[in-house]
UniProtKB/TrEMBL annotation:
Belongs to the binding-protein-dependent transport system permease family. CysTW subfamily. InterPro entries: MetI-like, MetI-like_sf. Its main location: membrane. It is a multi-pass membrane protein. This is ABC transporter permease. One of its GO terms (biological process) is transmembrane transport. PROSITE patterns: ABC_TM1. It holds the Pfam family BPD_transp_1. Residues 68-274 form the ABC transmembrane type-1 domain. PANTHER family: INNER MEMBRANE ABC TRANSPORTER PERMEASE PROTEIN YDCU-RELATED, INNER MEMBRANE ABC TRANSPORTER PERMEASE PROTEIN YDCU-RELATED-RELATED. The chain crosses the membrane at residues 12-36, 42-60, 67-91, 103-128, 149-173, 210-232, 253-274. The lineage of its organism: Bacteria, Bacillati, Bacillota, Clostridia, Eubacteriales. CDD domains: TM_PBP2. Keywords: Cell membrane, Membrane, Transmembrane, Transmembrane helix, Transport.
Length: 287
């Protein structure tokens, strides 16, 4: 009996705190939001106990569906841009020595030690009409008048790509680092051109990293309302903006909860599609 207690004690001490943390900060809030999504809004805000499906019916209002479609489109473009930027960069650093790899990865991670808001305000200073980017382009004679690079969709895309690029680089680096270089050498010995080797060998073998990175970029992009608020000037809306508005401005917590559940469902569908495509959940959890 004593031996069993000794065996179970380490398990309780390691798993117990994590389980309690997940129950307290994940499971209970989720159940609370889920239950609230079926309740009614009070006359002056707040929640009235009751059961209704009206909140979920409002989610499919054409106005909200338009925002949802726009959110999916913005997230998709941000994901594609992240892939285009991250893949060559990650492939480049994967070929370097261990010290250089560490330096490059530190350059990716260290900026995230600074507050997201501070970094986004830095981008506003860079992109505004009298900012560094427009001033440099004007001096080089590449443009005749300042470009509108912020407070629009362009600014939102720049902000999302900047904020989420590391989430694409890290899983890609893991996949490319595991790539068997002997396969590329075999392709070269058999007369395959570099482009052919990339399409036939490198790309398929690193596809799990692309899938994992896409999930890690696409899903947060749907809810990063602070990026659209700062760099979009509230002109560009994503699902996160609608949820924020319902909770804080409209004080319609039941509708905000219903939209939150809708976003969670979208997330679960994307993760399910990722698993169906052969993705490994460890690639997502490890990030």
């Amino acid at each position: 009996m004593n031996s069993k207690k000794k065996i179970n004690l380490p398990l309780i001490t390691t798993v117990g705190p994590v389980s309690a943390w997940m129950i307290l900060l994940v499971a209970i809030p989720f159940v609370y939001v889920f239950a609230m999504s079926f309740m009614n809004k009070g006359a002056y805000g707040g929640v009235v106990i009751g059961f209704t499906l009206n909140n979920f019916m409002q989610v499919f209002d054409p106005l909200y569906l338009k925002v949802f479609a726009g959110s999916l489109l913005i997230s998709a473009f941000a994901t594609i841009i992240c892939i285009i930027v991250a893949y060559p960069f990650t492939y480049f650093i994967a070929q370097k020595t261990t010290i250089k790899k560490t330096v490059f990865m530190a350059m990716v991670i260290v900026p995230f030690l600074v507050s997201s808001l501070i970094r986004l305000f830095g981008w506003i200073n860079l992109l505004r009409k009298d900012g560094v980017v427009n001033s440099l382009l004007l001096k080089l004679g590449l443009i005749n008048e300042p470009l509108q690079l912020v407070y629009n969709t362009t600014g939102v895309m720049i902000g999302l790509v900047y904020m989420l690029l590391p989430f694409m680089i890290l899983p890609l680096y893991s996949s490319i680092e595991k790539l068997d270089k002997s396969l590329l050498e075999a392709c070269s010995d058999l007369g395959a051109k570099p482009v052919t080797s990339f399409i036939k060998v490198t790309l398929p073998l690193t596809m799990p990293g692309i899938f994992a990175g896409s999930i890690l970029v696409f899903i947060p992009a749907l809810g990063y309302f602070f990026v659209t608020d700062l760099l979009g000037g509230s002109k560009t809306q994503v699902i996160g903006n609608i949820i924020r508005t319902q909770f804080i401005t409209a004080r319609n917590w039941p509708l905000g909860s219903a939209i939150s559940i809708f976003l969670i469902v979208i997330t679960l569908i994307l993760v399910w599609l990722y698993q169906k495509s052969g993705g490994n959940m460890d690639d997502l959890g490890g990030m």
